[in-house]
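Standup notes, structure subgroup. Blocker cleared on the zinc ion input:
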Amino acid sequence: MPTDSIAPRRPRSAVFLDRDGVINENRSDYVRSTEQLHIFPATLPALARLAQSEHAIVIVTNQSAIGRGLVSAETVAQTNHYLLERIHAAGGRIDALYLCPHAPDDACECRKPRPGLLLQAGSELQLDLTRSWLIGDAISDLQAAIASGVRPILVGTGRGKEASLQLASEGLANISFLPDLVEAVEHVLASA
Ligand SMILES: [Mg+2]
Ligand SMILES: [Zn+2]
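Run returned:
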């Protein structure tokens, strides 16, 4: 009899990562090619460190440039493939990537601040969302996390400093606000 039938595996926790502004530089006119993807220098070592943990590591990203007709889904997929290769080559790991390709007017269920991407990942990867984290640089990231029972962390990279000024007026004053992905990963690893 397999040993895991004696001790059922505890659902895994996850660290959800927003992409633009957390892993790589945000662009106000969208990252529309691999050439425009500028990974923050501190990202790769931080993700290599996070990869040593038991957390599932999942990117959740709004890519409305697809729905707006500014870039093809294929180009975004190529850019993400390149990003994941860079992360893996540096000793990191991304277990899954979920993206919303829709424009704001599409009224989809997956565009953050809606929780669709997180809930889909939680179901498909059998995650314990209440023990999971989301690291983002926008109020909409934090709202998606809260709506799905995930603990949010705001980082000061990308649009994060601007977002930090809105925390109180959005009723999010007690959210953890940390300078960057390095500090956010340390915070996660130091917590249960
Ligand atoms: Mg972002
Ligand atoms: Zn969507």
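Discussed briefly. The chain has a mean pLDDT of 95.
Next: hand off to the docking folks.
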